[in-house]
Amino acid sequence: MGQHFEYLKDLLEKGTLLLAGPCLDRTMGITVFKAESIEEARAIMENDPAVKLGVMSAELHEYRAALFAGQK
Length: 72
Description:
InterPro entries: Dimeric_a/b-barrel, YCII. The chain has about 70 residues and is α+β, with helices and mostly antiparallel strands.
């Protein structure tokens, strides 16, 4: 899980990661990041060390923000 956290920190530093964290009931976590294509998004997801090592599974869902704080 340390490698997973470092991977996410690297994505954050690069401006790719928007938010990430576990659900409080520990059933899953959510990661939201920017990608130019579904292929790029899949590569980001599949290159997470925890996913590559089978420590966790991942699902990819395309998402577009419609409303967010600070938006006018």
